[in-house]
Design goal:
Blueprint (H helix, E strand, L loop, with lengths): L19 E4 L4 H12 L4 E4 L6 H7 L3 E3 L12 E4 L8 H9 L2 E4 H9 L3 E6 L4 H14 L5 E8 L4 E4 L5 E5 L14 E4 L7 H4 L2 H13 L6 E5 L3 H12 L4 E5 L6 E9 L2 E8 L2 E8 L4 H16 L4 H9 L9 E6 L2 E6 L4 H15 L4 E6 L3 H6 L1 H8 L4 E4 L15 H7 L7 E3 L5 H9 L5 E6 L7 H16 L16
Parallel strand pairs: 1-2, 1-4, 2-3, 4-5, 6-9, 6-10, 7-9, 10-11, 11-12, 12-13, 17-21, 18-19, 18-21, 19-20
Antiparallel strand pairs: 7-8, 13-14, 14-15, 16-17
Length: 493
């Protein structure tokens, strides 16, 4: 069980960190933090072995990115930042301690950046990235220019972090390693609580206790927002209210403070009627589909309402919400096949995402390319993950992505694929990364929807799928690759 301890937020500010170096700077969480520091005018460097898409933006902002891990990367550095994915014996971690540099977990560095701001911290098993993005856009629409750090990039904005001029700081709070317990929020939003990260917590009761501890860290002058439809959220609200804390709920439940009704979801988006404390807020519309998206948006509406912001700002922001990269992200169309990317890896979020993609597919078939995330989760939730994957018409399964984990014989995707309730000819294990696009090109037909889903690396496969489908179309037509005027090969997107 992970029992890592972190230093609670204090008086340390971002400017106190000096020259900052981030190990593994390409990951979504680390690159967002690096972007925040760079837009704040602080000197930043980082090391990353893989050329993630976010790195070009960091270089453009003046960040120094090293493509190797080595002691020399720490020359001139004052503070080294690491994430829970970085082992303590990593050579740059060892060198930082040898040199006596300040070494901070990502959450500790983020807490320093939040010093002096009114923090809106969004936590939960599912939906926290989307909800954090929605809250951020609502506050931006209201003109308060919040700072924010999100575990994903808001589509079309192309950024998961920003240093704003306003008093609010919106942050996605990660419960996976207990690091969310160092924050001291003014507003705590908890979307739901389900069994996950049990390698850290051991059981659901311990996980729920951690969420309660997180909520109790909320400023007495602030408030807590939970979902009345979620059993874990409802239990939490009852516990906190019994302690005299200010808790507000949202959902379809009759006793929710902000109540949703007449929810309609289609491929064109989702809409619902909202009322708070008996007062009608009118119809809320989002251009992204899924009932769960409507529920996420309700937490943003309620948060804005309780902060005293205009409801019209929430309606306008959500009405143009572009979605979040890796959350129901449309990658493109090739040879009549529509390709999406989706981060879901927990069975509940997988089920919601695949049900929504079914709406989009219509008469077409749904083909899932899935890369499980972490061996312990794949083992402990195998039946639930397999049932979610059974929603698909076809499955291409990759091996589990589990950095630092040791896979025993029979563990991982070998066991999972046997449990998926699909006929043998409609599911296949891809022995290598390059096998997956070949399988998709072989199986997909015009009108189908393909989604890459799961662990972070799978997000890089969408373009390869589009290339494979485009090549298939060219081969069928008997023509060579399309060429742009500059002489480079064109791709369909």
């Amino acid at each position: 069980m992970n029992t890592a301890q972190f230093t609670p937020a204090g008086t340390l500010t971002a400017e106190d960190l000096g020259r900052i170096h981030l190990i593994g700077v390409g990951g979504v969480g680390m690159s967002g933090l690096a972007r925040l520091f760079l837009t704040r005018g602080l000197p930043v460097s980082g090391s990353e072995l893989r050329e993630w898409p976010s790195l070009a933006g960091l270089r453009a902002l003046g960040g120094t990115i090293h493509s190797t891990h080595e002691p020399a990367n720490l020359d001139g550095v004052d503070t080294v930042v690491y994430s829970s994915a970085i082992p303590q014996d990593h050579l740059e971690m060892v060198e930082a301690r040898r040199r006596g540099l300040r070494v901070l977990h990502r959450s500790e560095a983020l807490a320093a950046a939040m010093t002096g701001r009114r923090t809106v911290a969004v936590a939960g098993t599912h939906g926290k990235t989307t909800t954090t993005s929605m809250v951020t856009m609502v506050l931006q629409q209201a003109g308060v220019d919040p700072s924010f750090v999100i575990g994903g990039e808001i589509s079309e904005v192309g950024s998961g972090a920003h240093h704003g001029t306003g008093e609010h700081f919106v942050v996605e709070a990660d419960e996976s390693d207990r690091s969310f317990l160092i924050y001291r929020p003014y507003v705590s939003v908890i979307t739901n609580i389900e069994a996950d990260h049990l390698n850290t917590y051991g059981d659901l009761a311990t996980l729920e206790a951690a969420f309660a501890e997180f909520a109790r860290l909320t400023d007495p002058d602030g408030f807590i927002v939970t979902c009345a439809d979620d059993p874990g959220g409802r239990r939490l609200a009852e516990t906190l209210r019994a302690e005299g804390r200010r808790v507000h709920t949202y959902g379809e439940a009759p006793d929710a403070d902000l109540r949703l009704s007449e929810i309609v979801s289609s491929a064109q988006g989702v809409r619902y009627l909202a009322e708070v404390d008996g007062r009608s807020l009118g119809e809320i519309r989002l251009p992204v589909p899924g009932r769960h998206m409507g529920l996420n948006s309700a937490s943003a509406v309620l948060t804005a309402y309780l902060l005293g912001l205009p409801v019209e700002a929430a309606e306008a922001a959500l009405g143009s919400f572009p979605g979040v990269r890796r959350r129901f992200e449309r990658k493109g169309v090739a040879d009549g096949v529509l390709v999406y990317d989706e981060y879901a890896y927990h069975p509940t979020s997988m089920t919601l995402a695949l049900q929504t993609l079914r709406e989009v597919a219509g008469a077409g078939r749904l083909i899932v390319v899935f890369q499980p995330y972490r061996l312990y989760r794949t083992r402990d939730l195998q039946a639930e993950i397999a049932a979610a994957l059974g929603i698909a018409d076809e499955l291409v399964l990759l091996e589990v992505f589990g950095p630092g984990e040791l896979r025993q014989p029979g563990e991982g995707s070998a066991a999972l694929i046997e449990a998926v309730p699909l006929p043998a000819d409609r599911k296949v294990f891809a022995d290598s990364w390059d096998d997956a696009p070949v399988e998709v090109a072989r199986r997909a037909r015009s009108g189908d929807v393909v989604v890459t889903m799961g662990a972070p690396p799978i997000s890089l496969m969408g373009d390869q799928l589009l290339d494979a489908l485009s090549a298939r179309a060219r081969d069928a037509a008997g023509v060579g690759p399309a060429v742009d005027p500059d002489g480079s090969a064109a791709t369909t997107g």
